[in-house]
Amino acid sequence: MNKCLFLFAVVAIQSFSITHAAELKVDENIKEGNRWEAVIPKNVSGSFRLVSFTLSRLASYSRDDVLALHVYVPEKGQTHITANNIVKNNVNYQMEVKKTDFEQGWSVFTPWSVNDVLLPNGIKAKNLGIEAKLDEQTYLPTVLRRKGVNDVSSERAYALHFFTPANIKSIHYRVVEGNQKKLEGVLTDIFAASTFRLDLNMENMSNGFYKLILEITWINNRKSIKTYPFYHLEYEDN
Question: Coil, strand, or helix at residue 24?
Fold first, then answer.
């Protein structure tokens, strides 16, 4: 009986969600208490998924840097901000911002110290994936800076990173505004169990709601369609 209870306890502990696991970490190590942040056991998932959606990212950061994440919220709703390491290797980094009721317009999430979890676990800036979503549906523009430093990249293309569990022959992608096609392209020969990057150059396009549509042809010729609503807004350095 005791052995059975022990096994049940182990299973129960391992079934904690990412948020709960990270919450245990933040209470001990993150003095600001504004986020859940931890390295946790890998959550093996075999699904095709978007793992990062950013407008501008940092090339690097150093010890004692404090990050400031600028997020644009176009309308009232719940804004959920998360971060992860794009390429997992042997580390599964997860961060979730506690606050969800951001004001309309540009808001800044800070402080986010690199000393707490990022640097001790070797998470480099180029491997830091970020997602901000309005009402769990619409991806929002995010700009990552170091607090107090005006070091925004001049790049104005959205950088999207995806994970694929299987080999892909091709992806035909297009960006639409309503019924109008604004942008399109093709990616080919993407390998299984890897991440890949898609850049969307939205320069000179009007601010507003758009959709990214992916038409995927898998290695076995099976086809699928993925749709990602997002909001576009030009970021002005200040």
Answer: helix
